[in-house]
Automatic annotation (TrEMBL):
Native source species: Cryptosporangium japonicum
Transmembrane helix in keyword set: yes
Official protein name in the record: DUF4153 domain-containing protein
TM region(s), chain numbering: 96-120, 126-145, 152-174, 180-200, 221-244, 256-274, 286-308, 320-340, 352-372, 392-413, 425-444
InterPro entries: Perm_prefix_1 (IPR047928)
Tree of life domain: Bacteria
Lineage: Bacteria, Bacillati, Actinomycetota, Actinomycetes, Cryptosporangiales
Key words, A-Z: Membrane, Transmembrane, Transmembrane helix
Length: 447
């Protein structure tokens, strides 16, 4: 076979290996099947490229995979020969019904405390502690049903939610304690990763499955934001139109429509991601392409400003802003990795990402120095210790990512090494989040 044909087969195999439903032996068997069909077609007189396209199209058990591969490789010939052959499979009605039921469960869970005299306005502290515990179990339940997770895994998921509920509510922390604030911030992250276990059907050890969940997280955030923007416009019109006829709808909107809509949208956004992932291109990688150069320029300007002024405001809010910026950089890195074909070599965008990671690493070092100064002068507190730990975790990720990126652009390692590093680091995030929720209040005596 020609070199060009071998390249096409390698592209197809790399795409197939990223599919969660296919294992290594499955891919080997399918590749053998593909090569046999190509040989038959070339022996019949077809050119290599024609034989390849037709062979992929005729692999009946992989019709959906073939269409998605055609979508990712947007050459016109691909779309003409592969896409029109069969209409898209409609999302099963039962999945929509299941998502709707889980969304209703989330809505009921958010409003259920009202029956016991705990309102959103009256007891904001209760919702600050428990909001993620009220909503995320419904989302985990939806994925557990969809993925048909074993009962053992379902029990572990339920146990994780119970553990989080006990820790955030049983510890004697006052509403104004730093321990409560830090735990309430980290609990949603810890529980979101529990949802990830349900999303991958319990197969959390598989790096490809973890990367699928990372992709889902980015798409879910975008869909949820879009739903929130549309819902905000709808609520504004509702309040305005009812006000025009002399009816005050603000109470109903703030107490019912807003919290219920926000809770239900958590599951609805997840269903939309699952339903539309084979119809339209993922949006998170596209936005990553747009914002990576912009963030690289902004961080470089910030680094120059720090060098010029020689100082950094060490107030807590400022440090938190820097941490959020570093998290965004990490998100850009993750979603660029998630959408990239690991079989291709380094390009200009990889070098741009290397520059972004290096600048972010330098800024993280400056922030760590500022945090260390605050701790040296004022001592350890839950807030400062949490920020210190998070920056150390980000430093470790960014430092090794920069090393791997440098090795990749110098053709020393494959891109798959970067992907493996990022997916394995999810365990570090999960461990830290649960450590803060479960252990921090004990270390700082619930203050």
């Amino acid at each position: 076979m020609s070199t060009e044909l071998e390249t096409r087969i390698a592209d197809w195999r790399a795409y197939a290996e990223r599919r969660r439903e296919l294992h290594g032996t499955d891919t080997d068997e399918l590749e053998d099947h593909l090569r046999a069909r190509i040989t038959e077609l070339t022996d019949a007189g077809l050119h290599d490229d024609e034989a390849f396209l037709i062979a992929v199209k005729r692999m009946g058990s992989l019709d959906e995979l073939s269409r998605e591969f055609a979508r990712e490789h947007s050459e016109r010939l691909w779309k003409q020969l592969v896409l029109p052959a069969e209409p898209e499979r409609e999302t099963p009605r039962r999945e929509f019904v299941a998502a709707l039921i889980c969304a209703v469960i989330a809505v009921v869970a958010v409003k259920l405390p009202v029956l016991f005299g705990v309102g959103l306005d009256d007891d904001a502290g209760f919702y600050a502690r428990n909001l993620s515990l009220l909503v995320l179990p419904a989302l985990a339940g939806y994925f557990a049903w969809q993925r048909r997770v074993p009962w053992r895994v379902a029990g572990l998921l339920a146990g994780a939610f119970v553990l989080g509920a006990v820790a955030i509510n049983a510890y004697p922390m006052s509403d104004d304690s730093q321990s409560l604030v830090v735990s309430a911030i980290h609990l949603p992250l810890a529980l979101w990763l529990v949802v990830g276990v349900a999303y991958v059907g319990g197969d959390w050890r598989d790096g490809r499955c973890r990367m699928d969940f990372i992709r889902f997280t980015g798409e879910w955030a975008i869909y949820y934001a879009l739903i929130g923007l549309g819902g905000g416009v709808l609520l504004a019109f509702t309040v305005g139109t009812f006000s025009a006829i002399g009816v005050d709808a603000e109470a109903a909107v703030s107490e019912w429509l807003l919290p219920c809509g926000a809770a239900g949208a958590v599951v609805v956004a997840a269903w939309l991601v699952e339903a539309k992932q084979s119809v339209i291109e993922n949006m998170a990688p596209v936005l990553t392409r747009v914002f990576t150069p912009l963030f690289a320029a902004a961080l470089l300007a910030l680094l120059v400003g720090l060098a010029w002024t020689g100082r950094l405001d060490v107030e807590r809010d400022v440090l938190l802003l820097f941490d959020l910026m570093l998290v965004v950089v990490l998100g850009l890195l993750l979603y660029a990795i998630s959408a990239r074909d690991p079989a291709t070599g380094p390009g200009w965008f990889d070098r741009l990402q290397l520059g972004l990671v290096v600048v972010a690493l330098l800024i993280d070092a400056v922030v760590l120095a500022a945090i260390t100064g605050r701790i040296t002068g004022w001592g350890f507190t839950p807030n400062k210790t949490a920020v210190l730990g998070e920056n150390l975790i980000l430093l470790g990720n960014l430092a090794w990512s920069a090393w791997l990126f440098l090795a990749f652009v110098r053709h020393r390692v494959t891109f798959a090494a970067l992907e493996r590093w990022q997916t394995r680091y999810v365990f570090v995030y999960a461990g830290w989040a649960w450590f803060v929720v479960l252990v921090f209040p004990l270390i700082f005596t619930f203050d």
